[in-house]
Design goal:
Elements (H helix, E strand, L loop, with lengths): L2 H11 L4 E5 L6 H8 L13 E5 L8 H10 L6 E4 L10 H9 L5 E4 L6 H12 L6 E4 L4 H8 L6 E5 L25 E5 L4 H10 L6 E6 L5 H10 L11 E6 L1
Parallel strand pairs: 1-2, 2-3, 3-4, 4-5, 5-6, 6-7, 7-8, 8-9
Helix pairs in contact: 2-3, 4-5, 5-6, 7-8
InterPro entries: LRR_dom_sf
Protein name: F-box domain-containing protein
Length: about 250
């Protein structure tokens, strides 16, 4: 793209507030390439607020697409949705840089399957940089990130998935007794696969009771889990009445 072409193109990019694309689109690489190497250091979309990257099951992000996505990040971004499930270790820099380059994120959704320590740390590191989060949908996070979320007054909705292989992570969870925890959380959606112990451990560390609770796991006859909630969901002067409680088993 020549400088004169960019000056014309920039008149339109300044208007863009939302950018959405699918990394599986075979027609897209040429577009990414053209937009990734511009004759200027100016932001590609200077007023961009929302980035949505779609990805199918087991989809991976190529280095070419990764470079383009990084160009979309900026101080004005408040919503990020990265749907790809897989990323090679060098590509995890996308998540490592996200927290610092987009410090004012309010809603975030990640499809990344955090099945390695490096993936967990990359995703957790980004989450720990956000002090204004209102909604988060993601896979497994480390204890440091959970502690950060617990102290956010802004967090209203949390959707969280934990594999059974990570059961021991939260068993030694340490959070100050005199510090509010998830104080304004309204929606809690927990998905634990086939691991009842993980679910029970995580539920036991949550002190507040959200208005809407959804649990999902692939086991049968969960009496222990029901016993935990029978205690936690009892109305009291300090606990709001639960409006919706859904349990998916099977």
């Amino acid at each position: 793209m020549l400088p004169e072409d960019w000056s014309i193109f920039q008149r339109y990019t300044r208007r863009v507030r939302t950018f959405e694309f699918d990394i599986g689109d075979s027609r897209a690489p040429d577009v990414y390439r053209a937009l990734s190497f511009l004759p200027t250091s100016s932001p590609l979309f200077p007023h961009l607020q929302r980035v949505i990257v779609r990805g199918s099951d087991n989809s991976k992000i190529s280095d070419e697409v990764l470079h383009f996505v990084c160009l979309l990040f900026g101080q004005k971004l408040v919503h990020i949705d990265l749907g790809m499930e897989r990323a090679e270790p060098p590509q995890l820099s996308l998540f490592m840089n996200l927290g610092n380059t987009c410090p004012f994120i309010k809603t975030a959704s990640f499809g990344l399957i955090a099945d390695s320590p490096s993936a967990v740390d990359a995703l957790s590191g980004a989450v720990c940089c956000w002090d204004h989060l209102e909604e988060l949908n993601c896979n497994f996070l480390n204890e440091k990130a959970i502690c950060h979320l617990a102290g956010l007054n802004s967090l209203r909705s949390l959707t969280f998935r934990v594999p059974s292989s990570q059961m021991a992570t939260y068993q030694g969870f340490d959070y100050p007794d005199d510090k509010p925890m998830l104080s304004n959380l309204q929606v809690l959606d927990l998905r634990f696969g086939n691991s009842l112990p993980v679910c029970a451990t995580f539920i036991s560390i949550i002190r507040s009771v959200p208005q809407r609770i959804h649990l999902s796991f692939n086991i049968l006859n969960p009496p222990h889990l029901c016993k935990i909630f029978s205690v936690r969901l009892k109305p009291s002067a300090n606990v709001p009445l639960v409006e919706m409680f859904a349990l998916d088993i099977g």
